[in-house]
Amino acid sequence: MEIFFTQLTNGLAVGGIYALIALGYTMVYGVLKLINFAHGDLFTIGTYLGLSLLTSLAITDKLGPVAGVILLAVMVMCLVGIVGILLDRVAYKPLRTSPRLSAVVSALGASIVFSNAIMLVYGPSTKVYPHDILTTRVLDIFGLPVPVMRLVILLTSIVLMIALYGFIQKTKIGTAIRAAAIDQDAARLMGINVDRVIMLVFFIGPALGGAAGLMVGLYYGQIKFTMGWIYGLKAFTAAILGGIGNIPGAMVGGLLLGVIESLGAAYISLAWKDAIAFVVLILILIVRPTGLLGERVAEKI
Q1: Structurally, how many domains does the chain consist of?
Q2: Domain membership flag for residue 299
Q3: Contact yes or no for 246/25 (Cβ under 8 A)
Q4: What pLDDT was estimated at residue 33?
Q5: According to the per-residue pLDDT averaged within each range, which of 74-83, 131-140, 256-265, 277-286 is highest?
Q6: In a domain, 296, yes or no
Q7: What span, in angstroms and rounded, lies between the C-alpha atoms of 24 and 34?
Q8: Is 298 a member of any domain?
Q9: Are 17 and 251 in contact (CB under 8 A)?
Q10: Where in the sequence is the domain holding 111, given as residue range(s)?
Q11: What is the pTM of this model?
Q12: In terms of C-beta density within 10 A (0-12 exposed, 13-18 middle, 19 or more buried), how is residue 8 classed?
């Protein structure tokens, strides 16, 4: 029972990270019908920016671990969001009217550029986060030990996902995003600035990815410049699992994938952890190509 509970909470925490990254994929796809293959590298940028700000500004020493981590997360999200906007302006906006394959190739090129830029700036070796920020604290829940950092990641992920869903569904700007996702030409005729909507999407998606990157750094303690590839691929799997273009689907897919992966590693084999994730992807594509909740379809605004 203890093993199951431990793996379940770990899977939910990791699944929350996958879900945050998957939301970036699904938002961009929903509006532009583009898979942003550089999104995993934006996540990696978030991990490295978090480490740089944490060590250079000593935020947690000055404000305490909780307030320091919150401020650090806001800073990382804003910086990575700005990088996302610049990515769109440089790599995607000039190709809006080009064949879709051109944008895909541009995304792959941007991914390579980001990955190598991180390596040149920080070096190819593994970097280590400080170990004394929330990671050593443990809570007793129903007589079972649960690391505080695991709960922080899960709760933060859920809060961010609910906030995004509420923003998209309940605000005027969110309505504009949904309208642009359904039909950009019709949205323009209704007076919506589609370019501004796209810019906002490229800010929000990478910002969530940056938050996920900071969580990974704080949770695991070690980061590497190539980590964006595997996390990006698993988040893409989560988006497909829930239904690409479907925001609730990305949330459900990420959490479910994290739990499946964690339980599979515990009860089958740790060596098969990554393979299990991609077996799930293959099965979903075969059995239900539109995902568990279905791909986003047109709706009345």
Answers
A1: 1
A2: no
A3: no
A4: 86
A5: 74-83
A6: no
A7: 11
A8: no
A9: no
A10: 2-287
A11: 0.89
A12: middle
